[in-house]
TrEMBL record:
Residues 77-156 are annotated as: Disordered. Residues 87-97 have a biased composition (Polar residues). Residues 114-133 have a biased composition (Basic and acidic residues). It is found in: Nucleus. GO terms for cellular component: nucleus. SMART domains: WRKY. Pfam families: WRKY (PF03106). The keyword Transcription regulation applies. Its main location: nucleus. The keyword DNA-binding applies. PANTHER family: WRKY TRANSCRIPTION FACTOR 20, WRKY TRANSCRIPTION FACTOR PROTEIN 1-RELATED. This is Probable WRKY transcription factor 71. PROSITE patterns: WRKY.
Amino acid sequence: MSDHEFRDFYYQAAFHNDQQGVGETGMYRVSSSLQDPSYMSFTDCLHSSMDYCSLEKAFGLSPSSSEVFSSVEGNQTKQAGAGDLGGNTSEVMTTPNSSISSSSSEAGCEEDSDKSKKDRQPKGSEDGGESSKKGNKAKKKGEKKQREPRFAFMTKSEVDHLEDGYRWRKYGQKAVKNSPYPRSYYRCTTQKCTVKKRVERSFQDPSVVITTYEGQHNHPLPTTLRGSAAGLFPPSMLTPSPLAGPSFPHELFLQMPHHMNNQAGSAGSMFAENFSPFQQYHHQVPDYGLLQDIVPSRFLKHEP
DNA sequence: CGAATTTGACCTGCGC
DNA sequence: GCGCAGGTCAAATTCG
């Protein structure tokens, strides 16, 4: 997918959103969170709007809910990933009352080699040599790390770091070009979990937070977190194995549709396998038009 | 006191 | 080759 296509997608998404008049209650920011009165966490939002029967609402299938859009980063030319969602001219347009959760996935892509922006192995990687403190960063240049599936979504929120049930440790922050808002980098604190996320605020709509997840959790939600995160989701969502179902809320977005790739034209199919757990759903769904691309059939099928 | 955050330096890839 | 921008590291600092 080229930058333009990527951009177009978001424009369309916004347009679509407007047309549907979606909005009122998004998955975002509501002032009635259990723990934090200032906002509703993503987890809370999912919980509140979610059981599988009502996900369709949560995902914009009903007029009163937020909308989820997906897109797949085919060949991320210059990492047009979510990072750029808020960073350049391709800004998303959200209606004041709506939450657009757009997901961009770039799965796997071992082939993104040349492009893969570094992704250096977590420090202390096996090359054994942490030479001097900072000198060792140039490790294994030949080795291209596979890129994790990545998906982003936008959430209207006053807080940058949305609670999603997992514990994150911030490991960096950078100013983003063309945006007055910095981008924060978080890493899952669970050992051996390599999931990362980036959080930035849209410069066009400061109320919109763009969160990009990279990788998949290989562990259940921490039970201790904010009391009840683990209890918020059905067992299938807590399963470590991606094949058994999303292991964390955002993985729901993974179910989106590989064929957004096809739309994009380029490099589409190469990502399909990364969505394999969900392809079956895709194939099962009747024709819901765009919705089938956006919403997993398992949600759709519950429709009355 | 341990964990989390901040922040400046460093590294890498890309475009010119 | 150079400069820019994104991403990461890790020491210092702050927080619980």
